[in-house]
Write a structure and sequence with these properties.
By secondary structure, this protein is mainly α. The protein is built from six helices and no strands. It has one domain (2-134).
Length: 137
């Protein structure tokens, strides 16, 4: 039960951070990505803050023998770069640049962003299910 509650709290905190920083606003994200046009650098501060927090936080967390509510850390072990990784990263970047949303902010924006967020999430779910059926079978 502690794991469920801590996960819920972490999700709320993540969603609140996305909303406060306006990462859920597609226009703000697209303006950040438009470095040759009407560039809005304010999201760079959000990204730098996240990087610094993660950099420092991992130093403390990984010194522990295990997470608070799990028996062991579940860290990635692969270090190779393969075509599925490159393709997935490219699709993510293209989608983020075109739409101004990625999965986390899209979920957070459901409460106020309207039809565009619903369409994005529906398309994302179709893509995930299609990948699992076609590629992973």
């Amino acid at each position: 039960m502690k794991l469920v509650i801590s996960t819920f709290i972490a999700g709320l905190l993540f969603g609140a951070g996305l909303t406060i920083s306006q990462m859920v606003n597609p226009d703000k994200v697209v303006s950040f990505l438009d470095v040759a046009g009407n560039w809005d650098p304010s999201l760079a501060i959000v990204m730098a803050s996240a990087f610094i927090t993660t950099f420092i936080g991992y130093r403390f967390v990984l010194k522990r023998p295990a997470p608070f509510f799990e028996g062991k850390f579940k860290l990635p072990t692969r270090e190779d770069i393969d075509m599925p990784l490159i393709g997935g990263a490219a699709l993510f970047g293209i989608g983020w640049g075109l739409v101004g949303l990625c999965p986390g902010p899209a979920l957070s924006s459901l409460s106020f962003a309207g039809l565009n967020s619903i369409i994005f999430l529906a398309a994302m779910l179709v893509a995930i299910i299609s990948f699992r059926i076609i590629i992973r079978n």
